[in-house]
Design a protein that fits this description.
With 79 residues, this protein is mostly helical. Helices cover 56% and strands 5% of the residues.
């Protein structure tokens, strides 16, 4: 049940993001909700903010081994 609770928490977090920045973020169509994505207006984001969002999304889907290897190769983070 922890996975279900994690998914629910992520959905609530995404809904809060959209609610707090409605001109920048919006919820996806119903068929895409299963991916736990939001749509972002990239022109409304600072480049560093967009980079952070893309990096965090990447980290959520790659194998942990790859994420750890990236961290070792880039100790200062993405840049």
């Amino acid at each position: 049940m922890a996975v279900i609770e994690d998914v629910r928490a992520l959905g609530e977090e995404l809904a809060a993001l959209v609610a707090s920045h409605p001109h920048t973020f919006r919820m996806p169509s119903a068929s895409d909700l299963r991916f736990n994505w939001v749509h972002a207006d990239l022109a409304s984001l600072e480049p560093s903010e967009a980079r952070e969002l893309v990096f965090d999304a990447w980290r959520m889907v790659v194998p942990a081994k790859l994420s750890r290897a990236y961290d070792l190769a880039h100790p200062a983070g993405p840049g």
